[in-house]
Amino acid sequence: MPGPARVRYAPSPTGEPHVGNIRTALFNWLYARHTGGQFILRIEDTDQNRIVPGALDSILESLRWLGLDWDEGPEVGGPYGPYFQSQRLHIYREIADRLLSQDSVYSCYCSPERLDEMRKEQQRRKEPPKYDGQCRYLSEAEKKRGVGDGVNPVVRFKTPLEGHTSFYDLIRGEITVANSTLDDFVLLKSDGFPTYHLANVIDDHLMEITHIMRADEWLASTPRHMLLYRALGFEPPVMVHLPLILGPDRAKLSKRHGATSLVEYKENGFLPEVMINFLALLGWSFDEKTEIFSVDELIEHFALERIGKTGAIFNHEKLLWMNGLYMRERLTVHDLMGRVLPFLEQGLPPEVPRPFDGAYVEDIMALLQDRIKLLSEGPELTEFFFMDDLEYETPTLLGKDFDRERAEGILSLVQARLSDIEDFSTEALEGMTRRMAEELGLKTGSFFGLLRVAFTGRTAAPPLFETMEALGKERCLYRIERSIRKLHDG
Ligand code: GLU
């Protein structure tokens, strides 16, 4: 059993977190819980231009919805705070000063125009973009001139010009890059804010992070981070870069594959425990065949050794299947009702009186449990239970086997029988209706079809007799009366 880990989820509040971000959060959380360690939430908000209002709330809401509670971070605080990087600027500056005094960094006075020109020239020559190092070699006099011109310099790292940087990634193994491919990257921007590289490395060290688990796309930054760790004399944490999440076409998952923001999944009616189960399997597996895991099981089994290398396919069909399965097999009717209610509240027409009758909704849920795949289907699937004045066309009611007169006759007889019976249970209703079919020489298919439209306004609905029982005698009589009148009045 690995020792208690300190791991972090370090989102930038630049938009709604998408499923890939949350997969990262989940893996970190699972590992913290598995090892009895801490899960830290750190907000990387140093790129002031990219901050999106409301993004922080979406991040917190997404984590809360899934139950990924953080031991340290916004709202809960903790001994390594503050947990917003924008509140730690003094720390970064102090450490940048240290780097300056040990000659590991230099001030760069290049104007944005010059950098832009340089980038374009590199593009023309089909070279990777890279700072050319001009300010690395400024004389004291030139530096003074830069300061005199009122340019706010950036601070760049002196990347070794030769040699290699290597590190070990738990998933990818040994990785080595030639230092000549890395440029003198910026540590402090001209507004005095640190870049991601500087703040990330300093915070992971100061917050005593033991494992960095993050998406594969950050792998390219890691050699720079390693150089920084070394220059600062810090021991780097264990590196764990998680495999990419791909769409079914094997391209990196993006908007064009459908919903990607976690909040959308919530709004679309997925259960949080399903999202956890599903996301856990994007890049991690227990035995390559078990698919259904409770949160506790995931915590128990989660192991870094079982994180894969290859991209994980986000299969929306599988997610839907899993959601349906959880609703059918893992929720009690009562629980299902609690989850669907907010959707009914939102989605049922305003003329349906609120609050809903709890016992009635629970009966309806029992009927729906086998068919509902998304909580958001609730209003559409149940509307007819609540709307007594159903809207349907006469031809729909008649189907292909009846004319008006015949249908009216049959429905009137049903009305009479229904008002007479005491026992309004599924069995009694089925017995009565089947006897009538025989008596009247009707094919049950057409007869039940007629009744289904009269009671529900639809040709497809949950099983007829269960539906009638749930509706109850009074509603059934009202509906049948309306259908007779509809036929009669034309
Ligand atoms: N702020 C980065 C992000 O938004 C964090 C990357 C990392 O975990 O190092 O994903």
Description:
With 490 residues, the chain is mainly alpha-helical. It has 4 domains: 149 residues, 3-Layer(aba) Sandwich (Rossmann fold), CATH 3.40.50.620; 155 residues, HUPs (Rossmann fold, 3-Layer(aba) Sandwich); 53 residues, Helicase, Ruva Protein, domain 3, CATH 1.10.8; 96 residues, Arc Repressor Mutant, subunit A, CATH 1.10.10.350. Strands 3-4-7 form a 3-stranded antiparallel sheet. A two-stranded parallel ribbon has the order 1-2. Strands 5-6 form a two-stranded antiparallel ribbon. It starts with 5 loop residues before the first strand and ends with a helix. The relative contact order is 0.08. The model has no long low-confidence stretch (mean pLDDT 94). The site of glutamic acid has 7 residues, from loops.
